[in-house]
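Annotated sample (chain length 124).
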Amino acid sequence: MFISRLTNRLASSLATRLYGIGFLSIAAVITLVVASIYFADVTKKAAQGLFDRGFMGTLNATRIELLIERHRRLVESTPSEVNREYLARDKQELSAIQEQLERLLERLVEDQKLPRVSPEGPNS
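Output written by the structure step:
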């Protein structure tokens, strides 16, 4: 009788231990899954931020640089004599460059949530 009670107690104790280990293993696996999903989300946001600020910022800076360079060359090449055809063509090209610059800067201001400043200065 004593041996059967001891055997039952050991058997139930062993089963309890095995179930406990099983539940702990499942909890550990679920924790790892949740941590993996969270890490993947954080990594995705970081990569998007890097792309938006880094690559797109470089691309926009290059566009601005090219437009300003075109504007500078056009201003430098303005003839000293007054030829209405050349002046009209240059004025149209300068207006087109100015519009492109304004659109690009407006997009940058909207993307970066920067304050708008007028060309005359902050006090105007």
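Annotation: The chain has one domain: 2-112.
Annotation: The chain has two helices and no strands.
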